[in-house]
Amino acid sequence: MTENLARKGPRPPLIAKKPERKKEPRLLAIIDQHGCTGCEACIVFCPVDCIEIVPGVESQFQQVVEVDIERCIGCALCSKHCPWDTIPMLSYEEGIRQAPELTIKSVCNQKERSDAGSPAS
């Protein structure tokens, strides 16, 4: 599998306990947190439970959501059902590259916009 260069470090223990996907997907769902309202509509449709709630984002709604890109299978159900069109489906490599730019705050220990220029640990 392609190395996840959007990762800052190990996933938090509760998230790491969730099962990993079996193969690298062709597409990845990456949530543009700048437009996310935290409505959780996407969470309901995710068949692999890879969308996490991110509480307390500064200058934003009370919460947003984030896709754990190491568990996303690329099914596009979250993207299809997002009422705000803030979940683009990107090629795997493009998703890894763009994720930090679209992420304001991470609970999956993925790079955020403030880390976008930093190399992976």
Describe the structure.
It is a single chain. This protein is of the alpha+beta class and 121 residues long. Helices cover 21% and strands 13% of the residues. The protein has a single domain (13-113), classed as Alpha-Beta Plaits (2-Layer Sandwich), CATH 3.30.70.20. It has helices at residues 13-16, 41-45, 77-81, 92-102; strands spanning 27-29, 51-55, 63-67, 89-91. The longest helix has 11 residues, at 92-102. It starts with 12 loop residues before the first helix and ends in a 19-residue tail after the last helix. It has a two-stranded antiparallel sheet with strand order 1-4. A two-stranded antiparallel ribbon has the order 2-3.
Annotation keywords:
alpha+beta, 4 helices, Alpha-Beta Plaits
Topology:
Elements: H1 13-16, E1 27-29, H2 41-45, E2 51-55, E3 63-67, H3 77-81, E4 89-91, H4 92-102
Antiparallel strand pairs: 1-4, 2-3
CATH fold name, please?
Alpha-Beta Plaits
Query: Got a strand count?
Result: 4
What distance lies between the first and last C-alpha atoms, to the nearest angstrom?
Answer: 18 Å
* Overall number of structural domains: 1
Helices and strands, in order, run as HEHEEHEH
Please summarize the sheet with the most strands: 2 strands, antiparallel
- How much of the polypeptide forms β-strand, as a percent range? 5-15%
CATH architecture: 2-Layer Sandwich
Overall geometric form: globular
Low-confidence stretches: none
**Gyration radius over CA:** 13 Å
How helix-rich are the residues, as a percent range? 10-25%
Q: Quote the average pLDDT.
A: 88
Q: What's the CATH C level?
A: Alpha Beta
What structural class do helix, strand and pairing data support?
Answer: alpha+beta
